[in-house]
Amino acid sequence: MNHRWASSVIAVSSEYGSVEWGAIQLLGAPDVYPNYGDIESSWSPGGWDDPDEYFELGYTHPIPINYIDIYETFGPGTVDSVYVKNPGTGLFELVYSATPQYAGDTATILHITFPMTTFPVSEIRVSLETAAVEGWNDFDAVGIGNDLPNSYSWSTGDTLATLNVSTSGTYSVSITNSIGCTSSSEPLEITVNPLPVVTIGSDMYTGVCSSSFLLSGGIPAGGTYNGIGVSNNEFDPTIGPGSYAIEYSYTDSNGCSSSASNQITVTDAPVTTLNSFQNICSDAAPFTLTGGSPTGGTYFGTGVSNGMFDPSIGSGTYQINYIFEDSLGCSTVADQQITVELCLGLSDDKLDRGIFCYPNPANEKVVVNTSLVEKFYTIEIFNSIGSKVYSESLQEINDTHSLEIDLHQFPAGSYILRVATEIGITNKKLMIEK
User: Fold this and answer.
1) Is 75 exposed, middle or buried (0-12, 13-18, 19+ CB in 10 A)?
2) What are 309's strand-pairing partners?
3) Would you place residue 374 in the very low, low, confident or very high pLDDT band (cuts 50, 70, 90)?
């Protein structure tokens, strides 16, 4: 035990005398205690029941302390607060506070304990509320110090202040303080319970577009999942691509806890692309769409059915979409435009030279003439947006090898005249003027 007695009076609110009942009577070890009475070898304030009395004392060879002993030898019970001075900040720090009250007609030691200071103490301040105890109030001495033990000896041979055990058994400790006094504890029976065996399962994989899902698979059941992206035992993949450590913790009925961990890998959405399409004629046959990547996706859009595009929907520009869904349920879409042109078939050169339409430009009528074929199967006229505005099916050609078409109902503009014969199909550009 390290103990100090006051060596100097730094400040005092008042004193009854300069020597007898003076503040110097607070220095050194007690010379009145255990006697009780209004004795001149103790300090007493200058007045009876004056408010806010105090004294400040100094100590040589300062040490960290965890107790203060105040010897009260007449009218005890007036101490309301005690402070120690921090040399680092120069400020007094409160270590004791109480409501003063009469403590009986006997000499008393007010033993104050508190956590060990982190600094050596060379000054203290004791504040009094003398009005709380009627009459004179005398103080004999004030001691400070620490009573921490100097050494430990456990039954296991360990010498630290704390002992961590991993096996069940009986344990005890002997403590020796700074002046050689030794005390031994009663034997303590300790039961060490095994930690629970906790598993979490294998690593998991999910896609960034997946919904939050409840984590499961931890054994024993009833534990708690923790980690980035985890809330209330649910994992939210929208935190983004990456690998995330997930911990499963479980505490058993003995309060023993253990944990296991795995990883959840969140993959990004697939990168889907679609190659561009070449322009296509309106009379082309339906064809299978290709160019989507990764393979295995689905095409959709106007004119698309079962992965095929049908140009017969007419001239114009259409959006073709390609959607791909990966094994984790994430899907993305790419798109391209396809243009259907009004081609109406490719003309045979010989047939094209052997069929004429005149006049061209035409006004009220146009004559289609040929000397190469015996039959016109159909004659059709399409306007500039690809809509069919005239159609006639024929079997035989007259002696003049010609057909006259009335154009009164057609507005001025650019048209395509399509002639289907027994030997092929040809297209003629027809201009109508009004």
Assistant:
1) buried
2) 287, 304
3) low
Give the pair of three-digit tokens for residue 123: 């000054």
pLDDT tens profile 55-70: 999 999 999 999 999 9
* Burial class of residue 400 (count of CB atoms within 10 Å of its CB; 0-12, 13-18, 19+): exposed
Alpha helices (H) along 168-306: none
The pTM assigned to this predicted structure is 0.43
State residue 149 phi and psi, 5-degree precision: -70, 155
- Asked if 20 and 42 touch (Cβ cutoff 8 Å), the reply is no
User: How far apart are the C-alpha atoms of 420 and 428, rounded to whole Å?
Assistant: 11
Report the length, in residues, of the chain: 434
Identify the CA nearest to 414 among candidates 391, 386, 392: 386
**Domains present along the chain, CATH in parentheses:** 2-146 (2.60.120.260), 151-190 (no CATH), 204-267 (2.60.40), 273-341 (2.60.40.10), 349-432 (2.60.40.3080)
